[in-house]
Each structure stands twice: as structure tokens, then as C-alpha cells.
Prior knowledge:
Elements: H1 2-32, H2 35-56, H3 59-66, H4 73-109, H5 112-140, H6 144-168, H7 172-198, H8 208-239, H9 242-277, H10 282-318, H11 325-351, H12 356-381, H13 383-408, H14 415-429, H15 437-460
Helix pairs in contact: 1-6, 1-9, 2-4, 2-5, 2-7, 3-4, 3-5, 3-8, 4-5, 5-7, 6-7, 8-9, 8-12, 8-13, 9-10, 9-11, 10-11, 10-14, 10-15, 11-13, 12-13, 14-15
Amino acid sequence: MRKLLSNSLIFTVSNVLLQALSFILLPLYSNIISTSEYGIISNINTIVFLCNLIISMRLDGAMSRYYFSCETEEDRKKLFTKLNIFLFVISTAGYSLIIAILWPLISNKIGKDIWFAFVMAILTKYFDNFYSMVSSYLIAKQEAKTVSVIAVCSGALNLVSTYLLVTKMENKVIAYVLSFLAVSILRMFIVLYYQKLLWYPVRKFWEVKEYVCYSVNLLPVELAYWVINTSDRLVITALIGTSSTGVYSMGSNFAHIVNIFIDSFNKAYVPFVFSQMGRDSVTGAKNVICRINQYFVAGATLIVGGVFVFVPSIIEIFNKAYAGSAGIAMVLTISTFFYGIMQSYNVICNYYVECMSSKAKLISLCALLNIVLNIFFVNMMGVIGAAVATVICYALIALGIKYLADKRWKMMIDTKKRVFTYILTLIYLVFAWAPLGYKGFFLRILVSGVYVLLVVGINVIPGDHIFKKGETKNG
């Protein structure tokens, strides 16, 4: 338990630090890089991101899962070696094919400079795939300090190199993409170190098929999340205009604050739960996991409530021109609540391979529904309609993931504590409509202090999660 909290804190601090650095330097980039140049960069990254999802097949997800099926260090080295060999083969072949196919389309019609930037973006993703494999191994091993130090150092180096190259080079698109490639190349030295440390001669290479099948089931999930998180902006741009998209994106950025904390805790939560589920004592494992799930959901609810209440004041102080994004941020913050619920149960679905197919179908259907709802609600309600569509889809995903997880490994949560937490949070959310300005801001701080103490008091008091003798893992 102590290691889980320690790792969560480390991941949170490193992620918040990186986000803060990016936020501080954002005005500098916006003054140096024109909107058209940044649009080209965005399009390049979007294309390469989609290509990489398909080519890499999310093999790093297989590392995160099957690490806990390995009984010895030798087995872990074999797993690492097999996945990296397969990743090298499919990445090299896949990206070579893409370059060969797109060369006549991009170089002749768009220009060689953009083609050069596109190739550099491909190389960046190519190198990053191997680093992701190392990172997944270290996270599974619960080496939070090592992962965070590497992330913070490479992130800070990326920000510095981006600023220096963009200010010095004439072609801003190439400069921006080159800065990411430079950091990826440097991170390859870390990759080579772990490749040498963990390399193991393997004979039964055909066993990689099991890992690939698991990863293939992750692919539609990742693509569906991409659709859910990007289709709203595309619909707003098509139906209303780019200015409204900018306001919506600003609101989304503030709501994303919640995800920073949820994802940071999840990096420590997933390997911890996986390790507990492999224990011989089923009752002991369930006691620990149920207690941690209680803390996860309570913590996510606490952060969601805080962001929801403070967003109007923060945007008012930050930039009055974006005051219209406050309502969007508040609605999207509700979607992050359901995202937190989903992640608290998603770990169970990811542990049991047989759940992956059903999970993929669920999220893919929600992605298609999201597109339809975006078109309907944006036409009916304007920009905020896209936020409402996102809330509905994430609520459905959360309920679906919980249902799938409970079918396989039911958690016996403390219902009274959870209900009390939700009721208290709903009362607290009313203060989001307190007067704006500094007086309203300080009122929010005072009420929030009381709210935090009450939520912590409700959820930290020990609960009874003891199960009957002989209860199985299937619940």
C-alpha cells in the first residue's frame, strides 16, 4: 500500500511538472509559429499517430499485462526479448511500406520540406515505440522514480530544444519536428542499455502469438478513444467554425487537469492490482483491491469536484476572452469523473484476456455513437453540445467496463461510503456558481477545505471488506 501511494505521488508530481512547463512555454510557441505552420504540424502528428497505433499494435500493453504472468526473472527477459524482436520487425516493415506508398503523394503535391518533416515524425515514433516498451517494463516493475526521472529530463530537454530550434531555424515546421526527433534519439541510449541488460536468447519464438493477440484487442480500443477525443473538434469546425473550436479546446484543456491526476495514479494502480491478483490468498487480494478501488474513486471524485468548482474563477482571472469556455470545461469535467470510474475497473478487464474482445466492441460502439451525438447536439445546443455528447459516451463506457469487470472478478465496495461521497460532492458543486472574482475565489477555497476533510474522513475510516471463506476469484 505504501509503495502504491509513493509511486502515485511520484508519477503525479512528474506529470504535473511536465504539464506546467508545456503550459508556460505555450505563449512563446504561439508567437513564433504561425497558425498555418502549426496546422501542418498538427496534421503530420495526426497521420503519424494513427499509423503508429496500427503498426505498433500496442505491444507495450502486452508487456504491462504479461509481465505479471512471468514467474522468474528469466521469463521476464524472454518476454521483453520476444516483444522487442517482433516490434522491430513490424515497425521496420510497416514504416518502410508507408514511406514507399506516400512518397509520390506527399513529396510532389505538398513539397519536399513537409515530406522531410513527415519522415522525421515517423522516425520519432519508430524510436519511441522501443522506449515505450522499456517504460512499460519499468512501470510493471514499479520503478516509478526511474520512469519519472527519465520522463522529466527528456520532457524538459524537449521543451528547451524545441524553443532553441524554432527560434533559430527558418523553417518552423522542420524545427519543431526535429526537436522531438533529437530527444527520441537520445532516449534510444536508454533503450539500448535496457536491451543489453534484459536481452535473452529465445527459441520458442512462436509463443509471441499470445502476446500479439492480446495487443490486437487493445488496438480498436485505442482507435475508439481517439475518435471520442477528436471527433468533437472536427464536428464543431465543420458546423460552427474554427473560433468555436478554439474556445472548446481551451475548456477541454482545463478539464484535462483531472485526467493528469487520474492517469498518474493509474500508472501505479495497474501494476499494483496485477501483482495482487496473482496472489495465492484470494480473500487477502480482494480486501486490498477493494480498498484501493474505494480510494481511487473517492480521489477522482474529489479532484473532479475541485476542478468543477474552481474552473469559472480560474478562467475569469486567466483570460476573460475565454470566459465562454467555463461552461464547456465544467461539463467536460463531469466526463472525466466517468473516465475515473472506468479506469478503476478497467484494470480487471485488462488482466483477463477473455474480457478484451467485449471491451473493444463496447468502446468501438461508443465511438460511433459519439460521432452521431456530436452532430445532433452541436446542431441543437451549439459548442456545449459536443461536451454533453462526450459525457454520455464516457458514462456508457464506465458502466459497460464495470459490468464486464464485475462478471469476471466482482469488487465488494462500501456502497454507503460511495453514496455519501457522491451526495456530498453534489452539494459542493453548487459553489461553482458562487460570485466570480477574488472574493468568490476565496469562498471556494474555504468551502473546498471543508469538503476535502469530509471526503477524506468518509473514505479513510476502515471498512469491512472481509469475504467468506472459499470465495473464488470470479466473485
